[in-house]
Amino acid sequence: MDRINKGEEAAMSSRRIWRRLAATLVVSSLIAGAPIRAAGDASVTTTKVHSAALEGNLEGNSATRDVIVILPPSYATSKTKRYPVIYFLHGYGLGSAAYDGIIKYGEALTGAAAKGQEFIFVAPDSMTKFGGSMYSNSVTTGNFEGFIAKDLVAYVDKTYRTLAKPAARGLAGHSMGGYGTLKIAMKYPGIFSSIYAMSACCLSSRTVNPATDARFETMTADEIAKADMSVKTTFAAASAWSPDPTHPPFYLDLATNGGKVVQGVLNVWAANAPNAMLPQYVTSLKGLTAIAIDVGDKDFLLQDNVTMNDLMKRFGIKHDWTIYDGDHTNRIPQRLRENMLPFFAAHLATK
Amino acid sequence: MVILKTFGRLTAGFALAGMLSAAPASAQPSGPGGPAPLTKQADNVDVVTVHSPSLVGNLEGDSADIKVIVALPPNYKKDSKKRYPVVYFLHGYFFNVDQIDGLAHFGEAISDEAKKGHEFILVAPDGGRTKWAGSMWSSSPTIGDWEGFVTKDLVGYIDKNYRTLAKPASRGLGGHSMGGYGTWRIAMKHPGIFGAIYGMSACCMSARTVNAGDAKIEKMTIEEASKAGFGERAAIASAAGWSSNPNNPPFYFDWLTKDGVAQPDVVAQWAANAPLAMLSQYVQNLKTYGALGIEIGTKDGLITDNRKLDKLFTQYGLKHSYQEFDGGHAEKFSERVRVGLIPFFEKNLATK
Description:
heterodimer, A: 13 helices, B: 352 residues, Rossmann fold, 13 helices, disordered N terminus
């Protein structure tokens, strides 16, 4: 046992992390129950946005996405006023409506408006066949980067009275959404000016343990549907990062083949890991007005976020960094109100 | 003969190692060498210096003023209204642009094509006068943002100072070896600048793992590193491009090993710079190009990686041309510019 190598250890911890992530998210979902529409002054609507970037994806994920849009209280009466926009990306396993049920976006935005902080808040849904897009660009899941950074932003600017400029656009997200926030900020400079990653997942390169993961190779769709979340997240990650149009029925490559590790797939996963991508995107990140990362001290993703913080410090990328008393999910509604919204109020242009 | 010999060694370096490990130092050139620059530049060639804000402040202290060879159609100065397509060419590792021009004779190639009725401008920037003899055309605080130099500063300068057809459909990007690598990397990451892409004998396509030679490089001083052979110095140039660390002087990068032990985080950063690993997230970007072309010699040690690229393009439904020619890594370079690169862009760039 003491001869266990570092890679295996990392793989094991990676799988443990995903199991716990899955468990906590599911628990949160049960506690929260059915989505509850916020009451109050901010108006909450769910609209549908068609995304050209998502058309033709091999999983058959809808290219028309549900998007929750919260308009600030003064929107209806101040007919010429334009507002900054916060885009908020949900985490893995629960869609935008379920996140709204837990966080209650409308209530949060009403509270901010009462303090004079008015935004348009846009929360797109990115659920896919395997429970989450990873906000990545894949022929199998669809180009969710393009959906967020281009199609969604264009739709919102066209449809609502936004301040249609980077200085007034913020991007944030939780867990898988925190991952998407950092990745999109790196790859699409000049769209958003401030970003806030909450408990970001998937920052380090994903690993594999053939002893336990080789069984995924022969799983059917039914078996995956009934399997635990750690199996589903593997398929979600593979469909987002290692798509393979020539490999039906799932159109993805797993990191084992015939029980042997496929290094090429692990390399592709590394190329999607923000902690590995960061050195070549320093220019993009330095171009941002403000960056915030936070994570709970009991979050199983703490170490990955510590590494991201270290990397940003190393490269002189100015950012706010907070470790708070909490786990992966229990403080998210509170942090969104007390930290994230004030962060954007401080940094987004209001005219 | 000197040229052939040098390129032979270069080929051997790639063939043996794919830029991974080092051949015995005695078999390597003692420093950047290779073909001699032209003693007299052709009349239709401007040699200019382009200041690049993207490269300012790089930690190696490399110049942000880049020498650029601009080969113009011979009638450029007579016909004062006509606008031309532009081919941007990125050269390979270990040589500077003057040496590459000494081999390719860009001015002559452009004149010859103009006589056949194919008029265009060829722009070849220097990417070889960095501390480790090659920029990898990558982006890092250690070497500067060479992607930004090519896609913004250089294209901006050329469109401002020459009568170009200033639109993507009339801009081509091509390169050889390290330049072929840069070509694919930039094509993936920066869509909407160029309209057609041509990679010649591209290097550095695969992610690599740590090998025995790496622990030896770890122990090198700056002085030893600057005298190291081709393979070793290519690896050092790669680290400067791909695993930058401003807090780690005097090299300002993290190496693949620490006390001889492989560093997975650094290996992952290198993987994130390997086009074969990057490609799956850039399929939509690559689909925006009018044409993609790959060429590789059958005796080139890099053929396996380029076959993989061809296979991946096919797998993802990316329309492209793929040619294997009888040859090694570089000895037919000048000919390939004329029979591979130039005809590809003549076919695929808009001329008005």
